[in-house]
């Protein structure tokens, strides 16, 4: 039962905010109560906010009831700053506006914009945002600003504090301030004169305390995100500038940031990297101390200890030398960047000269080859996931983040390694942004018992004593203070600085309602409370570290659950089932999961492409579907598989009848009929739009250039044999006719497998969990293709990207040469075709299976042969149609494509290579999407 105050809060906001964005159910509150940290709190109420007016309303109502509020964006933060046991306000997908300003010199961003999306918008200008956290592909701007996130290259010169130009803020009292707007600033100076005066007085007091001011300046020469940004009090005198910079790194404890304008920084095109090995960490740190004096030439220098190198030494692409290194060895991964190739060459030579006095275990060699530098940086990027993947089931992964003054880096690192051994964390590794003295260390504690929690507590206290007291470093360099280090802020900063931080909090949030216990806390044991459980749930997901990297890839992320949230829910279900003490809670969680977790998961597997430990949550969903099938379900699937041709024929007949009805009743009448039937019969009646396909006629096996010596086996997908484009499509030809036209021009004879009408790659069965039926269809198609191709003599082409990938994965151990028709045309048949590209901008959608199998670049290259401009919309991953889910759960398709229309409105047409995907893409884009081969056919002739 929701406590009375929260019930009142929900009543007050209901009707003023869409009820579908207010969550109080156990599944939603649990899953939104998880971020990438080792903490979990379950909020009472979660609200997905859409605009500033909603945030102001929610803050006012929460304040009236004295209820705490926490803000959250992507939830990739590592220190527990995005979790709450009260009210959680989510600023995610709806806050995704961005605008490039001043020809790329600045950029305006809302808090829900991904860091990578900001950089993608700046790429044509040769610019990027300054902050470069490793989470850039998953972290949102709201978190990047509020944590003052940095990364491998930005250091202290290009972080948010240094590059922010203006902010748009909502204070705890509901006041909206836009620091870039003169009228807003003037009004604020009048309405909040007391606050600004207090900030001025605080700055004067701090600046007048020479010891404190010197300490602040010294500590911010390093990376430092422990506590509030006290450097604002010594760097600025204008109270508005002080306010602006205090907000950076404030972790949602002072205000809500609704917009940021960044000054951008150059993104040099010329880069080179080198991995250099040293006999011991002392030598490596001495070399880094020299490099740190030449940051104009050295963009990054990552220190890698022997344990971190050992964690990846057996992975593909890692130099064999690493396996033979002595136990004391260490390495530095260096990158240098320049505006021109000549400058790059000079910098490589200069860095080599700087490092010449230090004995290395192998010669220093710089490479500017993109493939080689990617291989080197993948070594560094693979360390964290390697530890995560190798950890014992039930343990968690913690990545801590400290800074030693650069002159003490070597001895600090050695003492840190000694602490690992003393406390029994023998698996721990150290790597980090050594130019700044910033080290990350990864270890895997077990929080299942009091003794283990006590060990973690003692270790963390020793680390803080070593870093903050003995060496006067920072216990948090770039991950933010959060709950993790809130008990240690005073230890690091001292009583005077801590009192200043308390005054800052009181000035902005006198009620203490914004993100309590984050940054400042009176609870000295906060860091060992509310630790996240990691129960065993399923071998597919047990290695998940709940980092959230997967979420940006998921088509259901704005509708129901993300892959991370599905895993959190399955872990809770497993824990409830194991305990057996709360059967009602288990039943409710399982019932809620059916729609949110299973039915709206498209099982596309794109989550795996972003997951540090390689988890495909789609496999979990498919396993659940298979387990849920009863004997009768399996028998029906087997019957359908045996009579697939008959079923396809029935589907064609139904589609032709519906098309006939549409001719009589029109679009409006057909829509009304289908909507009415759907209301009565539910998902058994498909969602209909004007782009709904028509039934194909009798399949005609077109021969291509029948007498050619160049032959190819053509397997038209079952969709091609069942559907033809809707009456709204510009080109109404069946896809097989288009394919035959292109390949005939290229001089190919087309061969077809026998019993074509009954063949299927198995995907429709596999996606429903009917694995036996899927395997039966796979074996049938394998036999037919081997026969038709003369045991692999002739290549096989498929006209649907989903089917292509299914066959490539399912028929790996055969002599068959399987191509998607797009790849075959691009890589083989193009030699016999002449392309005359259209002077148009066309939209391209890469279907999820092709994207996951690494064929996105090929599809884009083929499209660029056909049109002078190609738009691949950002943020649109899987379209969410998923074979038939666009018919049964159209809200999933709509949600996945909600950002599509504005990105392609300028295009002349849209293209893809999956018939069902093209239906949803057409409905939600304002364009008519067709198979990419339609465009190829339009622009080619025989060479």
From TrEMBL:
Catalytic activity, EC: 1.1.2.4
GO MF entry, a single one: D-lactate dehydrogenase (NAD+) activity
Domain FAD-binding PCMH-type: 39-267
Keyword Flavoprotein: yes
InterPro entries per UniProt: 4Fe4S_Fe-S-bd, 4Fe4S_Fe_S_CS, Cys_rich_dom, FAD-bd_oxidored_4_C, FAD-bd_PCMH, FAD-bd_PCMH-like_sf, FAD-bd_PCMH_sub1, FAD-bd_PCMH_sub2
Annotated 4Fe-4S ferredoxin-type domain residues: 533-564, 592-621
GO biological process: lactate catabolic process
Record-linked Gene3D superfamilies: 3.30.465.10, 3.30.70.2190, 3.30.70.2740, Alpha-helical ferredoxin (1.10.1060.10), Uridine Diphospho-n-acetylenolpyruvylglucosamine Reductase, domain 2 (3.30.43.10), Vanillyl-alcohol Oxidase, Chain A, domain 4 (1.10.45.10)
Cofactor entry: FAD
PROSITE patterns named in the record: 4FE4S_FER_1, 4FE4S_FER_2, FAD_PCMH
UniProt entry keywords in alphabetical sequence: FAD, Flavoprotein, Iron, Iron-sulfur, Metal-binding, Oxidoreductase, Transit peptide
Matches recorded under Pfam families: CCG, FAD-oxidase_C, FAD_binding_4, Fer4_7
Family according to the record: Belongs to the FAD-binding oxidoreductase/transferase type 4 family.
Protein name in the entry: D-lactate dehydrogenase (cytochrome)
């Amino acid at each position: 039962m929701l406590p009375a105050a929260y019930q009142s809060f929900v009543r007050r906001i209901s009707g003023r905010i869409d009820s579908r964005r207010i969550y109080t159910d156990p599944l939603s509150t649990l899953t939104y109560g998880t971020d990438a940290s080792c903490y979990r709190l379950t909020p009472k109420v979660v609200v997905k906010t859409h605009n500033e007016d909603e945030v102001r309303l929610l803050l006012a109502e929460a304040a009236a009831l004295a209820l705490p509020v926490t803000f959250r964006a992507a939830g990739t933060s590592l220190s527990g700053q995005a979790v709450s046991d009260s009210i959680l306000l989510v600023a995610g997908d709806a806050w995704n506006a961005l605008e490039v300003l001043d020809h790329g010199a600045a950029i305006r961003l809302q808090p829900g914009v991904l860091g990578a999306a900001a950089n993608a918008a700046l790429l044509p200008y040769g610019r990027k945002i300054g902050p470069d956290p490793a989470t850039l592909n998953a972290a949102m701007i709201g978190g990047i600003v509020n944590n003052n996130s940095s990364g491998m290259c930005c250091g202290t010169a290009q972080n948010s504090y240094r590059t922010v130009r203006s902010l748009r803020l909502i204070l705890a009292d509901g006041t909206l301030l836009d620091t870039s707007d003169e009228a807003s600033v003037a009004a604020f100076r009048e309405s909040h004169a007391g606050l600004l005066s207090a900030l001025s007085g605080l700055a004067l007091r701090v600046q007048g305390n020479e010891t404190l001011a010197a300490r602040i300046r010294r500590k911010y020469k390093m990376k430092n995100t422990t506590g509030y940004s006290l450097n604002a009090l010594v760097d600025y005198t204008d109270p508005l500038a002080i306010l602006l910079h205090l907000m950076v790194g404030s972790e949602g404890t002072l205000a809500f940031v609704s917009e940021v304008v960044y000054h951008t920084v150059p993104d040099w095109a010329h880069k080179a990297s080198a991995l250099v090995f040293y006999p011991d960490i002392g030598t490596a740190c001495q070399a880094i101390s020299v490099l740190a004096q030449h940051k104009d030439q050295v963009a990054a220098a990552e220190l890698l200890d022997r344990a971190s190198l050992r964690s990846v030494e057996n992975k593909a692409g890692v130099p064999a030398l690493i396996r033979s290194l002595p136990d004391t060895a260490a390495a530095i991964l260096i990158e240098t960047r320049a505006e021109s190739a000549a400058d790059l060459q000079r910098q490589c030579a200069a860095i080599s000269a700087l490092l010449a006095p230090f004995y290395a275990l192998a010669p220093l060699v710089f490479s500017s080859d993109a493939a080689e530098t990617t291989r080197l940086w993948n070594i560094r990027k693979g360390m964290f996931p390697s530890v995560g993947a190798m950890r014992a089931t039930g343990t968690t992964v913690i990545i801590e983040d400290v800074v030693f003054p650069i002159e003490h880096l070597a001895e600090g690192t050695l003492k840190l390694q000694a602490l690992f051994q003393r406390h029994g964390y023998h698996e721990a590794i150290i790597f980090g942004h050594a130019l700044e003295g910033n080290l990350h260390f990864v270890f895997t504690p077990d929080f299942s018992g009091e003794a283990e929690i006590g060990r973690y507590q003692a270790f963390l206290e020793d680390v803080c004593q070593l870093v903050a007291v003995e060496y006067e470093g920072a216990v948090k360099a770039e991950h933010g203070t959060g709950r993790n280090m809130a008990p240690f802020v005073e230890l690091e900063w001292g009583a005077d600085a801590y009192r200043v931080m308390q005054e800052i909090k009181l000035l902005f949030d006198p009620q203490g309602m914004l993100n309590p216990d984050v940054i400042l806390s009176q609870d000295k044991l906060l860091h060992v409370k509310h630790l996240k459980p990691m129960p065993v749930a399923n071998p597919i997901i047990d290695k998940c570290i709940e980092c959230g990297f997967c979420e940006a890839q998921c088509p259901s992320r704005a509708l129901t659950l993300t892959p991370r949230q599905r895993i959190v829910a399955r872990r809770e279900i497993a824990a409830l089932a194991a305990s057996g003490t709360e059967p009602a809670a288990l039943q409710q969680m399982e019932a809620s999961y059916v729609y949110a977790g299973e039915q709206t998961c498209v099982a596309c597997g794109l989550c795996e492409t972003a997951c540090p430990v390689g988890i495909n949550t789609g496999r979990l969903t498919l396993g659940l579907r298979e387990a849920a099938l009863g004997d009768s379900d399996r028998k029906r699937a087997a019957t359908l598989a045996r009579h697939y041709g008959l079923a396809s024929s029935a589907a064609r007949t139904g589609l032709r009848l519906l098309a006939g009805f549409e001719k009589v009743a029109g679009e409006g009448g057909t829509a009304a009929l289908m909507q009415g039937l759907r209301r009565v019969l539910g998902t058994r009646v498909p969602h209909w739009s004007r782009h709904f396909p028509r039934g194909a006629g009798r399949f005609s096996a077109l021969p291509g250039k029948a007498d050619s010596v160049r032959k190819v086996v053509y397997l038209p997908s079952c969709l091609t044999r069942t559907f033809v484009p809707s009456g709204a499509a510009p080109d109404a030809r069946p896809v097989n006719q288009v394919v035959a036209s292109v390949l005939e021009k290229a001089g190919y004879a087309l061969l077809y497998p026998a019993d074509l009408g009954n063949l299927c790659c198995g995907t429709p069965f596999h996606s429903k969990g009917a694995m036996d039926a899927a395997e039966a269809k796979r074996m049938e198609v394998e036999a037919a293709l081997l026969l038709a191709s003369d045991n692999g003599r002739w290549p096989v082409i498929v006209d649907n990207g989903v089917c292509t990938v299914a066959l490539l994965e399912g028929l790996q151990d055969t002599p068959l040469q399987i191509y998607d028709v797009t790849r075959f045309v691009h890589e083989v048949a193009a030699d016999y075709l002449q392309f005359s590209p259209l002077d148009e901008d066309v939209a391209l959608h890469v279907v999820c299976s092709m994207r996951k199998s690494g064929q996105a670049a090929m599809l884009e290259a083929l499209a660029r042969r056909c049109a002078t401009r190609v738009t691949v919309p950002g943020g649109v991953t899987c379209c969410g149609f998923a074979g038939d889910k666009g018919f049964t759960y159209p809200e999933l398709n709509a949600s996945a494509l909600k950002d599509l229309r504005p990105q392609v409105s300028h295009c002349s047409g849209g293209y893809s290579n999956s018939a069902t995907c093209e239906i949803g893409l057409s409905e939600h884009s304002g364009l008519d999407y067709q198979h990419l081969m339609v465009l190829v056919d339009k622009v080619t002739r025989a060479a």
